[in-house]
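explain this.
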Amino acid sequence: MNKSLAAAILSLTLAAPAFAATCSNTSAGFDAWKAEMAQEVKADGVGQAGRAALLGASYSKATIAADRNQKSFKYTLQKFLNVRGADAIISQGRARKKKNPDFYAGLEAQYGVPAGVLLAIHGMETGFGNFMGDTNVVSAIATLTFDCRRTDFFRPHLIGALLLVDQGSISAKSVGAKHGELGHTQFLPGNALSYGQDGNGDGRIDLTNMTDALATTANYLRQKGWQPGLGYQEGEPNFAVIKEWNSAKVYQQAIALMGAKIDG
């Protein structure tokens, strides 16, 4: 499936009326819900492989625990920077930029996003790829879609995950973060489907590959309105685009500050 068709499917899904499968705030009824949802997603273009992955999903208690306990976003900026290891991210980010300047310059030339921002996100999300998660992606996204708190938000990402399984971009066994995010910079599956880039030119989009992941990140920010050459600190035009990456104010501030220090 091409990206424009995938985007159209996700757009239709976002606008769709309430669906039949019943959500729950506990694990009760998850198997019945999977069976109902597997029938529903046929209308969204999900094929046999994707539906089989959904039917094989398990209710993820670890995902629910993580979703209920996002304490760090309530910290002060300074505490958040300390807890998330900002100094180490800045130091490693500078070293990575110095080691491979042409790579980051190429991304900025193509997408307009400076190295500092991409490196700050990469460091913040996975410690530069050192830990990309240990939770089954389809199970995590299915659990969050089944959960009543944010069913409507996660349903397009469930469809995205199942379409990625159909495409062979991920498998039913692929792992990611606790909320089902994928790869070096932790893309939710619907966003991976819509904004994914084949950065290394091997004919496939693999967000566990750093080149693909950073090209996808830069493309996402550009498509969300990044203006090349303009500032990204709080109050400057591109700070609003960082908000599109993460809704937590302290996270946005941290990315802007670390990015500026990496860029020098």
